[in-house]
Amino acid sequence: MAQFDWDSLRFFLAVAREKSALKASHRLDVNQSTVSRHVHRLEQDMGAQLFQRHSQGHILTSVGQRLLEQVEKVEAILNTTQQDVRGGISSLTGEIRLGATEGFGSFFLAPHLARFSRLHPGLTVELLPMPRHINLSKREADFSISLERPSIESLIVSKLTDYRLMPYASQAYLDEVGPIQGPEDLRHLRWIDYVDDLLFTKEQFSLKQWMPSLTPFFKSTSIIAQYQAVCSGLGIAILPCFMGQLHPQLVPVLAEQVDIRRSFWLTSTPDQRDLSRVRALWDYLRHVMALNADVLMGKAHQMQWLDEWGPNDQ
Questions:
Q1: What is the per-residue pLDDT across 198-239, written as a single tens digit (0 to 9) for each?
Q2: What is the CA radius of gyration of the chain?
Q3: What domains, with CATH codes, occur in the chain?
């Protein structure tokens, strides 16, 4: 094998993460031909093809996947060493991608991640709020927050938090329909719900699971669309408290009688979990959840912010 060109690994990492030589060139601020040349040189040095070139981009081969895992381990060691030299957690650098459910990612995580980014200006944080599972084996994210506890033994899984869901409606809609005193009054309301046959996990709450006799007036696969429909006065929906509690015009309905709970799970691969930047955000999120337990459980209307945080804080 020819002398190994370590500089080419930087280009390999960029293409592997962006899944495109063009996007990698933008990230590295070089020409696409420069990226392709380095990747080709690395493949020659390795004596193996690292990517399959398709119309949708660069897909890692099995050899490329193994190389990526090893290179990321080296990257983690170098980052840790760099942090020790420069002063620890404040010098975290690189990119970190977090997958999450749509509502939790958009309404709860986004503002907290913005504050985390200000604490670590050397980091680029990418949030993927999606109404589907995040595939960690395909490197869609460094780690994810899911409704359902993954059963794959090779993954690192940790419970992040419990949260509560309740019926919410706008005050205008409640004024229209009159007093709601018990579950029997729910049958004649305009309900907003998920599309049952498009639920991506059994942990997603739907009316069919709770009161099968209720007929939804409006359905959407998006919890954000449901939330907007409720805010507009269209009807009533079961919403997570981390969404419903934060809107001043939304009112919980039968809060003392309806108690629906779910959990969020943090998941990562061992290699990604060992990265300093992943550990930093992982631990930061756990502190944020503890600080906001009342919002998550429908007992408060205002989020609490973790503006200053370090690895020794309790």
A1: 888 888 888 888 888 888 999 999 999 999 999 999 999 999
A2: 23
A3: 7-63 (1.10.10.10), 94-314 (3.40.190.290)
